[in-house]
Design a protein that fits this description.
Elements: H1 3-12, E1 28-33, H2 46-60, E2 65-69, H3 74-82, E3 86-90, H4 99-109, E4 118-121, E5 142-146, H5 152-161, E6 166-174, H6 175-187, H7 200-211, H8 213-218, H9 224-230, E7 231-233, E8 246-248, H10 250-258
Parallel strand pairs: 1-2, 1-4, 2-3, 7-8
Antiparallel strand pairs: 4-6, 5-6
């Protein structure tokens, strides 16, 4: 089953008509980016973001949730009206099909978009699959699906430099790391333009770690083994035996589903 088919089924069965998801952590905000929808047409893709948010609430409880978008569609307005904890933040700089515009916002303005100690970023292809978010709060300033291969020398080099490169599409970050990232963005990195160094996950877990000593010393990035328990990304071929807390990438979901670890 594809991720999109699974999302449609879940919205029609598990989530249909549901408004009560219980209470989630008070120190965590959920945020997602959604941009490029044509307001003159029915918004046929919003169901994927709706699914990601509802699955997050199902596993973690209802909490303050933010949708950053370039414009409000009727579907967005209806969804936020149904759930008062959902805040729509309009960001006109987002450009359809241009990931750099999202990265620039994550690098430079993310701290302004929430006030809780921690933020969980979810996307239509990355969100929680089971309960257990408390295990990943309060320990690190950043945790996401790992890119560092689970090999001895890779882990040794990463540990020596605190360089645990992780994906940002499904991740948890502290408010203080977002503030620090924004300060360096304003000082220097907004001048770089569209390149790997300022792609939002590389920026937080590679660029600033390598080039900013105080950031490297002060920020706590999750180690590889912890990141594997948090989320899985098909860029790194781990053996899947236990369902991680969440996932990133449709192909990852389909692998977990094929292994029998995800149910409809």
């Amino acid at each position: 089953m594809t991720l999109q088919d699974w999302q449609r089924v879940r919205l029609e069965t598990v989530h249909q008509g549901r408004t009560d998801y219980g209470r989630g952590p008070s120190d965590l905000t959920v945020l997602t980016y959604y941009w490029g929808a044509d307001v003159s047409l029915p918004d046929t893709q919003f169901y994927r973001i709706e699914s990601a948010l509802r699955e997050t609430w199902l596993q973690c409880g209802m909490m303050k949730s933010v949708i950053v978008t370039d414009r409000k569609t009727d579907e967005l307005r209806a969804f936020s009206a149904q759930f008062p904890t959902v805040e729509i933040q309009v960001e006109p700089s987002l450009v359809a099909g241009n990931l750099y515009t999202m990265s620039a916002d994550c690098d430079g303005r993310l701290a302004e978009r929430f006030s809780t100690p921690y933020l969980m970023i979810v996307q239509d292809d990355g969100f929680p699959l089971r309960a257990g978010v408390d295990a990943f709060l309060g320990k690190w300033d950043y945790i996401g699906a790992p890119y560092v291969r689970d090999r001895f020398f890779s882990r040794l080099a990463a540990r020596a430099m605190n360089l645990w490169t992780m994906n940002g599409g499904f991740s948890i970050r502290s408010h203080r790391i977002c503030e620090q990232a924004a300060r360096y963005w304003r000082e220097t990195y907004h001048k770089f333009g569209d390149c790997h160094s300022v792609g939002e996950d590389a920026y937080y877990t590679e660029t600033l770690v390598l080039h900013r000593r105080d950031y490297r010393r002060q920020m706590r990035l999750a180690d590889n083994r912890s990141a594997i328990r948090f989320a899985w990304d098909c860029l790194v071929p781990f053996d899947v035996q236990v369902l991680p807390f969440g996932f990133h990438r449709a192909s990852t979901f389909e692998c977990l589903y094929a292994c029998g670890l995800i149910r409809e």
